[in-house]
Amino acid sequence: MAAAAARGAVAGILGRWAPWAARSPGAGRALSGLSARCVRQARAPAVAPLWKPQLLSGNLPGGGSPSVLSSVTSLLPSILQQPARTLTYYSLRNGKRKTVKAVIHRFLRLHNGLWVRRKAGYKKKLWKKSAAQKKRLRELVLCTRTQCKLLDKMTTSFWKRRNWYVDDPYQKYHDRTNLRV
Questions:
Q1: How does DSSP classify residue 57?
Q2: By the 8 A CB rule, do 152 and 113 touch?
Q3: Cα–Cα distance between 161 and 106 in angstroms, integer?
Q4: Which DSSP category does 124 fall into?
Q5: What average pLDDT does range 115-128 have in this prediction?
């Protein structure tokens, strides 16, 4: 069933290009390895296509013949690019929200709700940076209120609970005093 559908789709696509392939020299090369004989044997589609590719023979560099790929390439980004949604609202197994692991690896949440991150480029091309610049890059930065809200949405309550570690280097930063959120 699937093979027949695929064969029909290929025949429909190649059938549209059969007259062009018969006229142009080197059509096998232009149709990405398909010989003109295969193209001539393909049937034309019974239904009119939804879009019609434009062949621009005069504007090609070197005066070569146009290929199928060149007429379809402008359509590919809009078709193939799907929106990136890394936050899972309902997992398939438990039906619960899932944490974005990139947040956990890159940020640290303090007990007072603030998030801490490293400066960008703190590991990159250190050989060409001065000692003062390397020292500045090693410092930690507090995220803004908007970023903290976003990071809280991207993590579950498991990562927001209070943890007590022995010799925690961030112990003095976990509790804010005399500062408004």
A1: S
A2: yes
A3: 18
A4: S
A5: 95
Q: What is the mean pLDDT of the chain?
A: 75
3-state SS, one letter per residue, for 76-107: HHHHHCCCCCCCCCCCCCCCCCCCCHHHHHHE
Query: Tell me, what amino acid is at 125?
Result: K
- Measure the CA–CA gap between 29 and 35, rounded to whole angstroms: 7
Predicted confidence (pLDDT) at residue 167 exceeds the cutoff of 80: yes
**Residue 99 · residue 158 · CB < 8 Å:** yes
Q: Give the pairing type, strands 107-109 and 140-142.
A: unpaired
For the cut 60, the answer to whether the pLDDT of residue 77 exceeds it is yes
* Amino acid letter, 3: A
Please give the Cα distance from 178 to 167 (Å, whole number).
Answer: 25
Under 8 Å CB-to-CB from 118, ≥6 apart: which residues?
Answer: 106, 137, 138, 140, 141
Contact in structure between 152 and 114 (CB atoms under 8 Å)? no
pLDDT in tens, 48-64: 556 565 555 555 555 55
Map tokens 């899972």 to a residue: 88
DSSP bridge partners of 112: none
* Six-digit token string for 89: 């609202």
